[in-house]
Specification:
2 copies of one chain form a homodimer.
Chain A: H1 18-37, E1 41-42, E2 48-50, H2 51-55, E3 68-70, E4 76-79, H3 84-93, E5 102-111, E6 123-132, H4 137-153, E7 159-165, H5 166-175, H6 182-189, H7 192-205, H8 210-220, H9 226-236, H10 242-256, E8 263-265, E9 279-285, E10 295-300, E11 314-320, H11 321-330, E12 343-345, H12 353-365, E13 370-372, H13 379-388, E14 393-396, H14 399-404, E15 407-411, E16 417-421, H15 423-431
Parallel strand pairs in A: 1-5, 7-8, 12-13, 12-14
Antiparallel strand pairs in A: 2-4, 3-4, 5-6, 6-11, 7-9, 9-10, 10-11, 14-15, 15-16
Amino acid sequence: MSSIIKPRVLKGFRDFLPENEIERKSVIKKLENIFENFGFVPIDTPALEYTEVLLGKGGGETDKQVYNFQDSGKRDVALRFDLTVPFARYISQHLDELYLPFKRYHIAKVWRGENTQRGRYREFTQCDFDIVGVDSPSSDFEIMLMMQSSLFKLGVNDVTIRFSHRGIFNRMLETLCLKDKTVEVLRVVDKLGKIGEVKVVELLEELTTTENALKILEFIKPGKNFRDTLDKMIFLSGGESDDTKRLEEIYSYIIDNKIEKSFILDPSITRGLDYYTGLVYETFLNELPEIGSVCSGGRYNNLASLYTKTELPGVGASIGLDRLLAGLEVLGKKSELKSLTQVLILVLDDKIIGHYHKIATELRKNGINVEVFPIKKKIQQQFKYADNKTIPYLIFCGEDEVASNTINLKDLNTKDNYEGISISKAIDIILE
Amino acid sequence: MSSIIKPRVLKGFRDFLPENEIERKSVIKKLENIFENFGFVPIDTPALEYTEVLLGKGGGETDKQVYNFQDSGKRDVALRFDLTVPFARYISQHLDELYLPFKRYHIAKVWRGENTQRGRYREFTQCDFDIVGVDSPSSDFEIMLMMQSSLFKLGVNDVTIRFSHRGIFNRMLETLCLKDKTVEVLRVVDKLGKIGEVKVVELLEELTTTENALKILEFIKPGKNFRDTLDKMIFLSGGESDDTKRLEEIYSYIIDNKIEKSFILDPSITRGLDYYTGLVYETFLNELPEIGSVCSGGRYNNLASLYTKTELPGVGASIGLDRLLAGLEVLGKKSELKSLTQVLILVLDDKIIGHYHKIATELRKNGINVEVFPIKKKIQQQFKYADNKTIPYLIFCGEDEVASNTINLKDLNTKDNYEGISISKAIDIILE
């Protein structure tokens, strides 16, 4: 009748095969667990919003990365491109129903029409967590602790969280009378890791004097240790300030909690052109620094100024799930499970299928994931199915076993056979 | 500078406040657990696909409910409106990487520009589970068992799963020479619950003779019990067939598993104009039948004929999460938790904030969800925060307690105070 349509997905979009989706779900569950461990609550917002709400007035035409269109009711709508803007809108809209300080997490897909040649996806998952409505060193520190705990939970212990303070950076530029060139300087500083010190100075010299360029380089180079780096930052930013005191305070918490191994004060961290005003952080896998930061964030002055006159300072971070998953895979920390099934009940006899399902229910009541092969087929094909799904145990049973209320169990890993055992014995073996 | 943009969401779209999102996540986790218990594997597909892939060639202009548009690369794209079509595309595309029979589940959002006046949402969540690549009574039964188990897992034991067989219904129409009016008859039969028997016969009389109309009514009325209903279906469809044998087989499994209380053979269940060809099911909450079926499905001949010449018979069902959640709320089965936090550590002294975080880490290591209040504030405000988040325990601690390495614990439910206890004692009390 109709011709076949070629099954395919859009460029930059992906299907997830079971083994990948099992891994994604497992990582997401662990992150949710950490976020809840820290008292963060989940929220959700629509994928589609008014373009004006997401991009501001008149922003619709300018941002080509955003998927926007007119819906059938002639509304200008857009798919969310991050979780921060919807959160700003959300908290402004629901301030009366919420309470401050508000600690939320949000794990969801976002869409951007990025250039896919750089290995970027147009649909990807972000995991954001923020503390809004309070400006305290304790909150700044809590986010850092969560970044570290999240990675530990995923089995990645060898991480470095590099942090700095945008306020001190800005003050340094002020002392050099370069405040009006902040954006340009940030753009150059951001490239330090890629192009190296010499090239950075060259580029800075296009913006200012050689003396200033060298001072900026001096500022962004980490010192021997926290104290050394901070002293240099204090000196080059014109003396102590609330911002430098905050860094000291946070460092004292780090010491109290004996986690200094994971944290480095690194003044080259600025989070580029972002809207951060205070602490900023990036997280690197020490065995895989080249993939870049897997979790970044910082403090901002006013989250929701687009939507409300209520001042909402906050601090937060975002885990790039796709980059992190790619990293875990390279580090050999990806599970290769094709399913979570523990037992396959083979169908030897059509006439006792009801009985097979009964056995399955017994096992499930004990928390065991079990399936009944859906139809009588050659035994090799049923074995193949167990293999495809990496199922470790098989249960065999015919009419004799029904009569004696027993089963046969095979452990495919050890090749052990347990013949004529009771269901409860089988449960013990599987759960062991 | 810029004027305030009114924070708002599109009609038919929703924000989820923490208490609602906690509930949604908890229900989804339980469903995932059941699906994995039955050996189903998760998959995911893109939210956005080629319009042609989702709607077939030339389908783009006709379906106003679908959100479709041109992306910046001039591709015709659309947001998925269900999880079945993407699954058909997915399995055709990845057949070489998968294996049959394939049992997958998929829980995800879908979008339809529905009329919101009927209380429908334009963004909603579906939970689909299907067994593809096999046509067996065991699979038909397994889906029924999963429907029941899913609701049991959510604490809803009082459910009725009504099932029938579209093949037998079609054969009945054939015996009445009404095959070419199948669509019209289905449309009328579907209204039985709403308009009653008299009105159904009236409408059927517009399509055929009074005798035929009465025969159809006779067919769709359930009998006294399974046997009685089936006998009538056999008689009115012109005798026994593979389809009636399948119903008998499935019923024998139901008996074997002693779950007949939840299942009723109801020949008025046809799943309307859907593409089902075999078993069909709908699930009703007995205390709340008026909200309609919360989980429906059935068997289809060929899932993916649009994309592949490989025949893929299957059976599956879909839980309408939003309707189910609304039902759970009415039944008083909705949790009212505003957070999952178990302990709030109050900030009595600014100078020991690092210590507070250390205590929190100790508790978290024992699986306890705990937060440190983010800043020193009046004690009443910190209490209020615990109240807002329904946190049951408070920990107080000043410099004296730091010196003696103890804490004070307050149980807000019982009003019990535990003063000067060790952290490990506190952990025991909280976990108890």
